[in-house]
Request: fold
Amino acid sequence: MFEAAEIGRTLAKEEFKKLEPKIHHQVLQLQQRLRKSDKSLVIIISGVEGAGKGEVVDRLNRWLDIRDVQTHAYWEETDEESQRPKFWRFWRDIPMRGTVAVMFGSWYTKPLIDAAFDRLNEAEFDQALTRNRELERTLTDGGAIILKLWFHLPKDEQKNRLESEAKVSKFKKSPLLEEFSKKYDTFVKVSEHALQFTDTGDTPWHIIEATDPRYRDAAVGRALVKCLERSLGSEPDQVDPAPAEPSSIELVQLNDAELTILDAVDLSLTLTEKEYTQRLLSLQAELHDLSWQLHKAKRNAVLLFEGWDAGGKGSAIRRLTQAIDARLYRVIPVAAPTDEEKGRHYLWRFWRHVPRAGYITIYDRSWYGRVLVERVEGFARREEWLRSYQEINEFEDQLVDHGVVLCKFWLHISEDEQLRRFKEREIEPRKQHKITDEDWRNREKWDDYKLAVNDMVAHTSLDQTPWTLVSGNDKLNARIQILETVCGALRNALGLPPL
Amino acid sequence: MFEAAEIGRTLAKEEFKKLEPKIHHQVLQLQQRLRKSDKSLVIIISGVEGAGKGEVVDRLNRWLDIRDVQTHAYWEETDEESQRPKFWRFWRDIPMRGTVAVMFGSWYTKPLIDAAFDRLNEAEFDQALTRNRELERTLTDGGAIILKLWFHLPKDEQKNRLESEAKVSKFKKSPLLEEFSKKYDTFVKVSEHALQFTDTGDTPWHIIEATDPRYRDAAVGRALVKCLERSLGSEPDQVDPAPAEPSSIELVQLNDAELTILDAVDLSLTLTEKEYTQRLLSLQAELHDLSWQLHKAKRNAVLLFEGWDAGGKGSAIRRLTQAIDARLYRVIPVAAPTDEEKGRHYLWRFWRHVPRAGYITIYDRSWYGRVLVERVEGFARREEWLRSYQEINEFEDQLVDHGVVLCKFWLHISEDEQLRRFKEREIEPRKQHKITDEDWRNREKWDDYKLAVNDMVAHTSLDQTPWTLVSGNDKLNARIQILETVCGALRNALGLPPL
Reply:
């Protein structure tokens, strides 16, 4: 999830200077409309320590007309608060219609800290998060708009900030930074779970890469403007026409040309034929052995493949199936649904092929079509694909909870490499059947797909169910990366040491 | 919750004979419309053992055109099933659009049994129920209609059925009856929690009193017809015009004159002046002492009063406050909301008065206005008051989890007694201010209020947060019943033995 907020987004000083007054103006206009509406706005400021949450609060107070804004910091509970049920402190601060509450800390703070410090077990943590979800549902049903912002810093950056006083304003340094820095990994893990669990269609999370303060603040501004526009209905005089609708747990995009998670994939990796052949043979032998061990251990595995057209899915899958006994796996090519499938929930066609103990299912394209092609082509409505992130996470959670080994691959290639392969396919008679007009049409939507992939990874690449973004410009490299990942996952599941 | 399904509803043989063909006809018509729609129907059959669930399944298969109906019984998991994630068996049985699945047992069966037999702790149970809620949301978002039926039997009746072979058809006797009969109380307790937790606006539970098979089956028919009508949109040619919209966790009403939970209150109870005075003084002394002990123990209490106009709330509250030190309690009379209150969520005005440790808040009328006056007068829309049951349960859960002692009273009187009191108020100069035109108007809606109270108790009278229905025709009796209940709850909270 957070890898999509670790790709080094920045905003140049002069760009920020141009953008900031526009955001300020838009925020004020929208606040004016909020005032006249029957809605209230709750902005939740959370995230890793050291990300500059205090500075964001300052910025919001500069942008908003503060006559109708209350900022609440949830620090240690007072006597008054601890003597009452734990949501009392939040209920007392619920803003009136037309007004805004900025919450520095929130109903997430205590459960997150308790989970990170092992004071809550997994089920108790879920129970607390369920209550948060219910509270948010209650409030939004009652007319509140809830904007949930999460500020992320990579581990090194947090460490830097801890070490170098210079990088953060002296007065704004979080007193908890040192303590949390030691627990970074734990904190990120529980946070990921919390965000995924509470990322609903009505109250989505916005993950903001906070390394560059200018980017961070501009992203806050954009998220705020988008959220209010969506909730209040948009007006014609927008400064900046919106690009393709960004989704909920998102790296808030400042414009179309923004970096996405795919830009973080190093496409320059290559292997020589010799290296390839050597490693292929040894990995395939390994996979053959591991798949039989998996069978004996009565474990099951699901491998799924998504990627650009001509990304090399088919040939990569063949390198896997060559190595596995034909009795042990099935490949499910996902094309147009059958009548049987069309008549049911979109997940049904995937549920039915979940392997039994000891077997492997390979999905060639998958349930992610919902948030890729169906989103980009408009086959699914916004609310449909938006809620499917959670549906998909719940589905995969059940697989993993049951002990299924799950590997998810996105085969990434560059736009140029795709063009090269398309042309090759047109020329080569044996490959002509593989290129259609549809492929060319899809190619025109490259940027939309990039955004969709970015959101998909941000929403669904979780600790237990990570995506592997495959560096695929060199097919040989791609195949080896996939074989290595699958073998690694199987070894891990079987309790064997990594190779 | 289940007390509303233990009041002895029956249906005479000749009435059933008249009704049954009508239901059959309506069901077939609605099924025809379902067939042409893009929806599917899932009927979940659950409830206590011995309630005749198998007979209900037979009945449904007689009413429905079985060409489009599949019945699934979820018994022991097969190998095929246990080797896959636990929802796999349900997903494989999801009906196609236009068709029906009758599920005998469901995703509730295993969590309920595991919780009853202590194989799940409280948080794990909630986790399992959260997953059920998510599954149901996923399915309904995808176009499924889910009708959840719960069949209830009182403890004695279940025991009777166990003991007397004659009462149940020989071949249909549940093999689990004996085992579950021993765990009746535990099973009812975990069931209550499960039903409350998963009773959402989209997928409500229908609790059906199952002692009389004719009433039971007619209630199933009515629930099915109502559910399909609501989901498919109703058509003009209804056999039987619907009475006031019944709500979700409901005792399915067959007609307006049906018994409600209030009919189970014995209004004939009286006390002599002498008995009253004696017990009043001793209970007030007790309450005085207990309220100080509560203060010292840093516990808090919430007492709330609802009831018919002229039901005697005010005078009963005075008998309490006479006994408690004025520093320790506050009475919050709930009338029209202030501007501050109107501008926020309807629960805010009640949250703000939650007492701190050591103190008592008495609410004279309460958050239940939402499901009483606001429902009956149409101030809240159906979906608003319907979802507020869950909002209220969550609110009260938090009170109780925090250790707040909560007592909820409905002051019940008969329609005749109300008339007598109204007339008395009109004559008596000191009481004339207490009677208004509004009271007379409310009185005309007596039956609507009865239904609303019934639903309120069915939804919100839970193990930890029970309602006390006060027998109030005799004011003296009412006051003593209330004092006894409050003293009992305080003693219990303080760890003292019952008086």
Notes: Chain A has 20 helices and ten strands. The CA atoms of residues 295 and 412 of chain A lie 31 Å apart.
